Amino acid sequence: xxxxxxxxxxxxxxILDPHSSDFSIEDIAHGLSLLCRYVGQCREFYSxxxxxxxxxxxxxxxxxxxxxxxxxxxxxxDVSGPLKALLPEYKRxxxxxxxxxxxxxxxxxxxxxxxxxxxLSVLAAEQDQIMPPGTSNWMAGSGxxxxxxxxxxxxxxxxxxxFLKRFEDLCTQRQPKCAVLVR
Length: 183
Fold this sequence. Notes:
Elements: E1 4-6, E2 12-14, H1 25-33, H2 48-58, H3 63-67, H4 73-76, H5 81-85, H6 88-104, H7 113-130, H8 156-174, H9 176-179
């Protein structure tokens, strides 16, 4: 079975064999910048690319891994948590794509626990700032404190630029292997 998609760059991405696919950080940034968090159920458009930048800024010790923590969604879309729990095959495919992305950029996998903690902290800030009142009630007993970020709801082009700038800055400073992958 062939399961390929065309990427913004013109390359093909094989969902079932992502390790053989020719994708770039621009493909990831482009896809994430056009995908809305919360399957669009927030007060205005808020991209996964912008979210990823905030998680990266919140998790300085693993900033590059944090920036790419949702990168698989650039190729398979964002699925709500409740639906994802019902789709074990989706989760397997997502994990395979994540490992291919992390391998390409020289990032250890699986993700450090600090990345998930930063993701939850940014989620808490998002719930306070861009979701309907009362949706942050889950934080009361969770011990999760909202990250000190201001959600800007950037346009897709602004979010893509912010994501690529963060990637380039991190690669130049900390990850010599991935610096050569910035096109």
